[in-house]
Write a structure and sequence with these properties.
heterodimer; A: 310 residues; alpha/beta; Rossmann fold; 2 domains; 10-stranded mixed sheet; 3-stranded parallel sheet; 9 helices; 17 strands; B: 560 residues; 4 domains; 6-stranded mixed sheet; elongated
Chain lengths: 310, 560
């Protein structure tokens, strides 16, 4: 496993996703910030939405982040007076959240602030684009974004990380989810040359999510059709629109029948293990997936050297 | 107050003017508001002023570098907070938006030059407020409360900076000590996951006072998470920082309240700037369409009054949506030459010969002109109508529970009501074609007669129904239509009618002449080429031949 590397993170909109809450997304985002700081670089930290249960502008300890002077962050306008980092508004508003309109601010000195992001995909993409263009900002990090992928995957600088936490109890379940996720991120992009035109001249665009029910409808239409034409290639907006079972996805992917309009570049899995050695865990994964484990727990001193040469 | 009339949806759909106007791309929220509010203007002087705006925008954009800078500033203009609600509760976001607005408004003025500013009334009289907002903010694009907004902040912030520095220095010292003593390298991270023996050894050593305080908790069976604990001096520093921060917040609130109070008296100015900016932005967007689509300024005649009749003259008018479709299909598009100076005009001619397109072109040009736009033509002279309406295709009829005929009659009723109030332009596309021929003819004749007497209004009919026009009150036109000789020989020797609709339409397009001719000059004088067109479209030859036979018999009977 390679350590996290600033060269990988810099100049990108780094999207951090994971399979559940508590899987290490925020920890990874903070570790990336620390990594950049060690090299004197500055990041913008954004998030998607806000947990409504915590919705007061001034008391949101769980969403408080420590920033250095010059770093940028997304927050609600209402939370700005409660930021200790002498924030200056750089851009906005970008949609809204449970705490009101969202702005992009920059820390005028080291201190803390409350991280809040827009609830709308388009607004998050706009804020990310704006953040990456801010002078002195070397990278954008977005904490928790799988459901917000649709507009973000259109950004040429987007780079997806998947934070994974596994222990002995969930090892095999997590391995299966990683395999599934890896299939999704590797769905090929549709273009006119994607299919053999003689066999299948057109694709079928799936507007909205591709679920098992939608897939069954497509199969049913095809079998009831008088002309037994082959199933056309299916094209979904992006990987976040696919909600198929492992077997369904495997069948479509292995027969090269499922495409995405907008692929997103996948950096790899960042793996946090409890009571498991990396070797034992990797043994439960196909080698193609194991090869895409980017690094171990970034807080584990001996497993991952922050700022090390990758 | 004079109202701008919204373009009814059925008229917009028929003329496709709404579709074309949606291509206007103003950059600022105020330009977009103006575009979204476009409708039929009925005051000739206001329309002339709109055209003058487009010319002035064209002059402002004549220099490429200047044009780029103007567009950049317009794209950066944010929407101001709701000015009508007052500025009493304004906070950082509202002040940021106003500052950003003013930065780009001022930038725009300096790039636009004096002539443009005068023309569009791009005045600026908020120098003091602007300077107050910008005080201490080195970056034009961002906003924060600075010591120049509230001088007492300087001292508090100096103390805060010093405290932050000492806290971070203290943290660095602790990290260095932990690294040196126990080999734990936090490297800026909040905590570390280390082997349990190493963690416990470090924690025990720290508890003996051999280094900074550490806390450890189990992570898994062999690892522990370790974090640095603040020592007494660190806690004191943090407490001091909290106190200073409270003081800073109070001073910031005071500064924000002072700026918000200044903003209250600036609200009328801000409203004025945003209105002027919207007008300028929309004019720029229009000018860019003028350039992209080769549009010309309409010539507006004085409104018809008394017994005067309206007139329309179109030279090489282009119905752009159709022109683009023809280009896509690789078929010929013929611009329209058409002159009308009587209250009623009747247009007949071949099926698929372009009658509806003539009506659509007239409606398209007239609507654009009355929306304050230039028009796609070599010349377009018209007058300003107080209403424009169409009775024709009825895509909405079923939704309203009406038949196609019912819908047409409802439209006619509304058009007649409007005509009773003022001069307008009424367009009838195949009016009454869904009812019996005899009744349709009677109804058409009655409507034609009514419009012949409607002062200042103009009615344009495309129809296959024969009507008598009142003397000197109407004009007859005919589409030049199908080249029958070429049509008769077109498929001779070929393998038949093409299967592909696109190819078929291409053939028909090649055989049609889409010019409008005075009816007296047209040859033949009557007929709609329905059977010839049906043959071109692939109608069974036996049916076509039989229909021609029946038609010949009918005409012979009528003649005898």
């Amino acid at each position: 496993m390679m350590p996290l590397d600033t060269k990988l993170v810099c100049s990108h909109v780094n999207l951090i996703t994971g399979f559940s809450s508590g899987c290490g997304k925020t920890s990874l985002a903070k570790a990336m910030m620390a990594l950049l700081r060690m090299e004197g670089k500055r990041a913008a930290l954004l998030t998607a939405g806000y947990e409504a249960g915590r919705a007061t502008a001034g008391s949101a300890a769980a969403n408080r982040i420590e920033l250095l002077s010059g770093e940028a962050f997304s927050t609600s306008a209402a939370s700005l007076p409660f930021a200790d980092c002498r924030p200056q508004i750089e851009a906005g508003p970008f949609g809204s959240s449970a705490l009101g309109p969202i702005v992009l601010a920059r820390a005028g000195r080291s201190g803390n602030a409350i991280l809040v992001g827009p609830g709308q995909n388009e607004a998050l993409a706009d804020a990310s684009r704006e953040a990456l263009g801010l002078p002195g900002i070397d990278a954008v990090i977005i904490d928790g974004t799988l459901s917000r992928l649709t507009q973000l995957s259109h950004l040429p600088e987007a780079l997806l990380f998947c934070a994974v936490m596994a222990d002995r109890a969930n090892q095999h379940g997590i391995a299966r989810r990683m395999e599934h996720f890896f299939r999704l991120v590797n769905l090929p992009q549709w273009n006119e040359g994607s299919s053999d035109r003689q066999i299948s001249p057109a694709c079928r665009r799936i507007e909205g999510p591709l679920t098992s029910a939608v897939l069954h409808e497509i199969y049913a239409e095809r079998s009831s059709s008088r002309h037994k034409t082959p199933l056309p290639p299916l094209v979904v907006e992006d990987m976040a629109h696919v909600f198929l079972s492992g077997q369904e996805l495997e069948d479509l992917a292995s027969s090269h029948m499922l495409f995405v309009a907008h692929p997103v570049r996948f950096a790899g899995f960042v793996l946090t293990l409890r009571d498991l050695s990396p070797e034992d865990f990797a043994a439960s994964l196909p080698s193609s997936v194991a090869d895409h484990i980017l690094c171990g727990n970034p807080y584990e001193q001996d497993a991952c050297t922050l700022g090390g040469a990758a | 107050m004079r109202a701008i009339l919204p373009i009814p949806s059925h008229l917009s759909a028929f003329s496709r003017a709404g579709e074309f106007l949606a291509r206007l791309e103003p950059r600022s929220p105020y330009g977009k508001d103006r575009r979204n509010g476009l409708g039929l203007e009925t005051d000739r002087m206001v329309l002339e002023a709109c055209y003058d705006d487009i010319e002035a925008a064209g002059r402002a954009l004549s220099d490429t570098v200047r044009a780029d800078r103007l567009l950049w500033h317009l794209g950066k203009i944010p929407r101001l907070p709701d000015l009508e609600s007052g500025a009493e509760g304004w906070g950082l976001l509202e002040l940021f938006l106003v500052k950003k607005f003013l930065v780009h408004y001022i930038g725009l003025r300096s790039v636009a030059g004096e002539e443009t500013c005068t023309h569009f009334d791009l005045q600026f009289r908020s120098q003091d407020f602007y300077q107050a907002l910008c005080a201490g903010n080195a970056d034009a694009e961002s906003f924060s409360i600075t010591a120049q907004h509230e001088p007492a902040l300087a001292e508090v912030r100096t103390r805060l900076e010093a405290l932050v520095h000492r806290i971070s220095q203290r943290r660095r010292e602790q990290e260095a000590a932990v690294r040196a003593l126990w080999g734990l390298d936090f490297a800026g991270r909040d905590f570390l996951i280390v082997p349990a023996d190493k963690a416990l050894a470090a924690v025990e050593s720290a508890a003996r006072g051999e280094g900074p305080l550490l806390a450890a908790e189990p992570y898994d069976g062999r690892m522990m998470s370790v974090r640095l604990l603040p020592d007494t001096s660190m806690l004191e520093l943090e407490e001091e920082r909290r106190r200073e921060r409270d003081a800073e917040r109070l001073l910031e609130e005071k500064a924000i309240a002072r700026l918000a109070a200044m903003a209250i008296s600036e609200l009328p100015n801000l409203a004025y700037y945003s209105a002027a900016l919207g007008r300028f932005d929309l004019a720029i967007a229009k000018w860019r369409m003028v350039r992209d689509y080769r549009l010309v300024r309409p010539v507006l005649a004085l409104p018809p009054s008394g017994t005067g009749s309206a007139s329309i003259r179109i030279c090489a008018g282009r119905f752009i949506p159709l022109e683009e479709e023809c280009r896509e299909r690789n078929t010929r598009y013929e611009p329209l030459d058409f002159e009308l100076d009587a209250p009623v005009a009747i247009l007949t001619g071949s099926n698929m010969g372009g009658k509806t397109c003539v009506l659509q072109t007239v409606a398209f040009l007239q609507i654009l002109a009355q929306c304050g736009m230039y028009v796609p033509a070599d010349e377009f002279a018209t007058c300003v109508f107080s209403w424009i309406d169409v009775a024709g295709e009825a895509p909405l009829a079923r939704k309203r529970g009406l038949s196609a005929y019912g819908f047409e009659i409802r439209r006619l009723v509304e058009i007649l009501r409007a005509a009773a109030k003022g001069p307008g332009l009424a367009i009838f596309d195949e009016f009454a074609h869904t009812t019996s021929a005899e009744e349709a003819r009677a109804l058409m004749q009655a409507v034609v007669e009514r419009f012949a007497d409607a002062e200042g209004s103009m009615a344009l009919f495309a129809t296959h129904i024969a009507c008598t026009l009142p003397t000197e009150k109407g004009q007859m036109f005919r589409m030049a239509g199908l080249d029958r000789e070429r049509a008769a020989t077109f498929f001779a020797g070929s393998s038949g009618v093409p299967e592909d609709l696109k190819e078929l339409l291409g053939h028909i397009n090649a055989l049609m002449c889409y010019r409008v001719l005075p009816a007296s000059a047209a040859t033949p004088a009557e007929g709609s080429d329905a059977l010839a067109v049906a043959r071109l479209l692939g109608l069974d030859e036996d049916i076509a031949a039989r229909a021609e036979q029946l038609l010949a018999q009918s005409r012979a009977g009528t003649a005898s």
